[in-house]
Amino acid sequence: MSRLLVSVTASERPDLLALQLRNYDWALGPGVTHIIHVARKGRDAFLAGLDADPGIVLNPRSAETVVSNNFLGHVSNFRHAVAEGIPFDRFYMHTANDLLVRPGLPAAMAGQDVGLGRPVLIRSISKDYWREMVLTDERLLAHSRRHGIEGGVLKAHTDGAFFPREVFAAILDDIFRDMPEEALSPTATRYPPQEYWLACVLDSLVRSAGLRWGRNAILVLERTRGRGEPVTAEEVRAVHVGRAAEVVKTFLPESVYGLKYFSPDPGHPARAAVAAIMAGQDGVCGA
Fold first, then answer.
1. pLDDT digits (tens, 9 = 90+) for 144-157
2. Which phi and psi angles does 155 have, rounded to 5°?
3. How far apart are CA 97 and CA 130, in angstroms?
């Protein structure tokens, strides 16, 4: 059985994170370890509100992170797990404010090597919020050219991304050949580096090693970006039964297993819909 390490970069309320981790345990089944990186700012207060659990490992280190740039938190979690000998075969990148609502993710992960959003080439004419920043980052452009990418940089969504342990290690080695680690901190890099640097390296690895590239597990609806309107109960139920396209009016691949940007209100109808799904399942969602 594959051993999954869920990398959490905590920036939300401890009570909401606790609800989220229970949802992950329900959806992912046995063999899951959660490793939590807590941002430097507010670390002590956050930890005081988080209940201890045998399936949770607290990373004693705190890198600089913000909601849009949590990459170094995931890097720190990965390195701490390796250094401490925590057993895992796959590395899953948690994302704040998401919940898993559909069965089958463990089987889907077993059927593909990596899960990351499909790469898109960001060029000067692209409609991308971070376009000007990434296209003026000379080290990212040089890194992209080294991997045979011309005329722009690749971008891929990392919400619910997952990788074999050895692949993620190879990705980090490749990235930090071209970029000092501290240069990817929120102070130095204003865009989310995980969405651009990971896509570039993984695209190269897939082409050279023949890896099976699947999609990331979490869907971020366009209208919820920037924390606009939260996910609705109707959208939760639609994704759960595999008919999301009828409600969301967009193409949703088979690999969508969760949604992002739930309301912080624990009693919100969308959260209640997820709780009802969890309560109505026999055994593990994905067994």
1. 999 999 889 999 98
2. -135, 140
3. 22
Task: Return the structure tokens found at 7.
Answer: 């990398």
Q: How many distinct helices (H) and strands (E) make up the chain?
A: 11, 12
The tokens 């992960």 sit on which residue?
A: 109
Residues 19-58 pLDDT 10s: 999 999 999 988 899 999 988 777 777 777 777 677 789 9
Q: Annotate 177-234 with DSSP letters as a single string.
A: HHS-GGGGSTTT--S-GGGTHHHHHHHHHHHHH---EE--SEE--GGGTTT-SPPPHH
42 pairs with which residues across the strands? none
> What mean pLDDT, rounded, does the chain reach?
85
Q: How far apart are the first and last CA of the chain?
A: 12
Which residue carries 């939260």 as its tokens? 230
**Which amino acid type is present at position 209?**
A
Backbone dihedral angles phi then psi of residue 62, each to the nearest 5 degrees: -130, 110
Query: Does residue 252 surpass a pLDDT of 70?
Result: no
Q: What is the pLDDT of residues 173-184, one digit of tens each?
A: 999 988 888 888
Q: How many other C-beta atoms are found inside a 10 Å radius of the C-beta of residue 67?
A: 15
Buried b (16+ CB within 10 A) or exposed e, 211-245: bebbbbbbbbbeebeeeeebbbeebbbbbbeeebe
3-state SS class at 249: coil
Yes or no: say if 218 and 6 are a contact pair by the CB < 8 Å rule: no
Burial of 56 per CB tally in 10 Å (0-12, 13-18, 19+): middle
CA 225 to chain centroid: 15
- Residue type for position 32: V
Q: Delineate the domains of the chain, giving CATH numbers in brackets.
A: 4-280 (3.90.550.10)
Distance CA 36, CA 15 (A): 14
pLDDT for 169 equals: 95
Q: How far apart are CA 92 and CA 11, in angstroms?
A: 17
